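Following up on my earlier message about glutamine. Here are the inputs again, as you asked, copied directly from the submission form:
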Amino acid sequence: MLTELSATELLAQLEAGRLKAVDVTQAYLDRIARHDGAVRAFLRVDVEAALAQAAEIDARRAKGKPVGRLAGLPVAVKDLLCQRGELTTCGSRMLEHFRPPYDATAVARLRAADAVLIGRTNLDEFAMGGSNENSAFGPVHNPWDLARTPGGSSGGAAAAVAAGMTPLSIGSDTGGSIRAPAALCGVTGLKPTYGRVSRYGLVAFASSLDQIGPLARTVEDVALLLEVIAGHDPLDATSVDRPVPRYTDSVARPLEGLRLGVVREHVGEGLDPEIAAAMEEALDVYRSLGATVREVSLPHGKYAVATYYLIAPSEASSNLARYDGAHYGYRTDVARMTAQLEAERKALTKSGDAAALESLDTALVRMYRRSRAESLGPEVKRRIMLGTYALSAGYYDAYYLKALKVRRLIRQDVDRALESVDLLVGPVTPSPAFRLGEKVNDPLAMYLFDLYTITANLAGIPAISIPCGFSSGGLPIGLQLQAPPFEEERLLRGACMFQSATAWHTRQPELG
Ligand code: GLN
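Thanks, got it. Here's what our run produced:
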């Protein structure tokens, strides 16, 4: 089946004229029509626009005119990246009707590369969450077991690839949102170095942690997509001006004498024994390929979850202040609200309660409050409250500033560990996909699920999740590799070595 081919294989066939972009696009659209009713990875699919774009690419190719690097390959985009004129909801009622007037730089680069923008994928509201259950539009279902979470927040992106509904997906990763869903859905996902991919047009969650990155079925495909979206962008002051290597040229070259470091703090208590066993096997595979494995330590790792859950909500509370109901996004019914406010004022005047009258909202403040209260979900509100508290006068030093200091220590731990080894290796998630509904009432359990992924965000380093096995219940397990800043090439080569020696990435879920 065409949809079983990797993006790299599809591209070779498209370039050789053996496949047409229209047929490739149609094949994926058919899969979406067949399976997305159950999986719900996509929030929107624009069939006509995708086919028109594909036809235009075919026509250009037929005339021998130049086409872009991804010409004719469908790419799904997480509904958190602005796409000109298209709904960009961020999984939130707040932005349910928001159509940005511009493209995110990553989206613009996909367009310039002639990728076919096939649809927009579901996510946790504003990317806050790890199970997709925080989406205002209902959760995505894991293609390996529809009763389970695909992970989050880029759950739609990962599930769409796993279900063969797109060969390539764009996600974002603030604390694991590319890698965790990749692991739980049995696909490959990479979080680049902070600054490697422009964040311009990515709706901000936590600006010092957010990165856009690729998901696909193979390491080669992830390399291909990264090559297109990476690079300096004057519109994002944090994007770094460094040349982008041709990752696809080197990805298949094994790393000689590879030295792997197992993070001691990531293999102990709390790790599911089946994941620990899969990791041990993965290490044996690496040894058989000539790698050496030693233990390394991230002594401040035990503070990572606490640090992340101070920094990320602090930045979120500040970033989300822009949703005030005045400029754009959801606005409460102002006529009704004003009438109510008038009625309250009259009643208080009548009863002579001067203090209550004094503290009554102005219409403007009431509009802000109502607009936010009515359109933001409970997890987003929780983060805004946590962050506002951590940043407030009197607590700033004790929480936010302290967290920044610990973040620096974590980065130093990582730098030190990566002096003696080439890559860090470990699990991605503490367990395979859990059941939808299982953790919704336990935010702390949800936060602890991020234990292994947030280090890379706090330290700003690149990290990848690749399939490395299955649980006895048939659920995918991911292996995480992490590299020094801007060593995506090393990361991809190290991942590709493992992929070449194993077949986990070739397994696909039965979808009936
Ligand atoms: N699960 C983490 C959180 O809820 C990570 C989210 C992300 O990477 N966007 O913050």
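One observation from looking it over: The mean pLDDT is 97. Hope that helps, and feel free to reply on this thread.
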